[in-house]
Amino acid sequence: MSKQYEKETICVQSGWQPKNGEPRVLPIYQSTTFKYETSEQMGRLFDLEEAGYFYTRLQNPTNEYVAAKICELEGGVAAMLTSSGQAANYYAVFNICEAGDHVVLSSTVYGGTFNLITCTMKKMGIECTVVDPDDDEETLGRAFRENTKCVLAETIANPALVVLDIEKFARLAHSHQVPLIVDNTFATPINCNPFAWGADIVTHSTTKYMDGHAMSVGGCIVDSGNFDWAAYPEKFPGLCTPDESYHGITYTEKFGRAAYITKATSQLMRDLGSIQAPQNAFLLNVGLETLPLRMERHCYNAQRTAEYLEAHEKVAWVNYPGLQNNKYHELAQKYMPNGTCGVIAFGLKGGREAAARMMDKLKLAAIVTHVADARTCVLHPASHTHRQMNDEQLVEAGVAPDMIRLSVGIENVKDIIADLEQALETAE
Ligand code: PLP
């Protein structure tokens, strides 16, 4: 679909383009495999000499159409779906890092990502330096090494709600000849396009706002096509030298700006297999159709709710980038002028115990391990998503022990506030 359309139109119309007599709605290609007339033809697909489908672990049409829609929303050149947001971040990094390499990681990334990079990928021989995203460029620059291969951070950190200075991070990454990978899950492409500010790769947990209805776990990687891998062949041998596991193909030579995603699909997905189920991609596509409408309502409701909480006598602090006095308000205005996300972090004067009591009293908002859902929900990060972190890591991640993460849904905001009101009143 042509680039001339606005995001609202892309969300509804892009991706699947039916030809005469074909289904209007994106079909679910519920097939592991695809038929060919000759063995020679299928051989050419295996050699990447021709584009086409042969096995769903590598590519599936339903997934491809949905990935194409997200790619267009982000303004990228190529994209792929993964089975989860975890798989997306894993592949995004592992596609350009191997044992002996090094990653610069923002301290405020989602707990699962933090664990993936600092623990699991460490066991694979990939080192990392954790940095405070608010540090100045000189301090941040000291984290880079000869063997650094990428920088990973989140547009709006989950759950610290730290807004990333994307331009600062892009400058830093590029001055060290490495790409900036931005997890854009919370902002979504509706509120922010990191590529416009210099990011090179974007990842998503599509499980969150994109699906939006808590129906399917999924992820996505989008490549801007802007990072010039071929300019640093010694840094990125996986992309710039022949791949023995693919008949000596050199991805940058053969696929140009699509090299990164082609490698991730034909090598990582082939070998590690974290494909998104076509059924889930179908559900994701339905979610994407209403993403702009929902984001607008999420942001409106969250702003009203944050203002309510800020004025409440039992509330000790509120963190929401939409609030005028928020530390990240200015950055949010710059990168996300139409709104940030529907997630608010706050603490009660009664501390951690009061937080648990208050959460137990909520009737509308459910306690669930989820965020960015149409339904309002809450979670206590220190006891739930971030419980594997020690106190020092919690502080680095911007997770106060008393922090309540409130994911404001798209219900009528009066009902959301009334629910908080009764819970705050009855919980002592
Ligand atoms: N990135 C962010 C910002 C997240 O919030 C999450 C999950 O909460 C993930 C990645 C991991 O995504 P998933 O749960 O789909 O694996």
Give an account of the 3D structure.
This protein is α/β, with parallel strands linked by helices and 428 residues long. Helix content is 38%, strand content 13%. It is globular, with a radius of gyration of 22 Å. Pyridoxal-5'-phosphate is lined by residues 84-86, 89, 110, 112-113, 154, 158, 183, 185-186, 205, 207, 217, 219.
Helices and strands in order:
Elements: H1 7-13, H2 39-46, H3 61-74, E1 78-82, H4 85-94, E2 102-106, H5 111-123, E3 127-131, H6 137-141, E4 148-154, H7 166-175, E5 180-183, H8 188-191, E6 201-205, E7 219-223, H9 237-240, H10 251-255, H11 259-272, H12 278-289, H13 291-310, E8 315-319, H14 329-335, E9 343-348, H15 351-361, E10 366-367, E11 377-379, H16 391-396, E12 404-407, H17 413-426
Parallel strand pairs: 2-3, 2-4, 4-5, 5-6, 10-11
Antiparallel strand pairs: 1-7, 6-7, 8-9, 9-12, 11-12
Helix pairs in contact: 3-12, 15-17
The chain binds pyridoxal-5'-phosphate (PLP).
Pyridoxal-5'-phosphate binds next to α4 and α5.
List keywords for this structure.
428 residues; alpha/beta; 38% helix; globular; binds pyridoxal-5'-phosphate; 5-stranded mixed beta sheet
Give a nutshell description of this structure.
α3 (61-74) runs parallel beside α12 and α15 (351-361) crosses α17. The protein has helices at 7-13, 39-46, 61-74, 85-94, 111-123, 137-141, 166-175, 188-191, 237-240, 251-255, 259-272, 278-289, 291-310, 329-335, 351-361, 391-396, 413-426, and strands at 78-82, 102-106, 127-131, 148-154, 180-183, 201-205, 219-223, 315-319, 343-348, 366-367, 377-379, 404-407. The protein is an alpha/beta fold and 428 residues long.
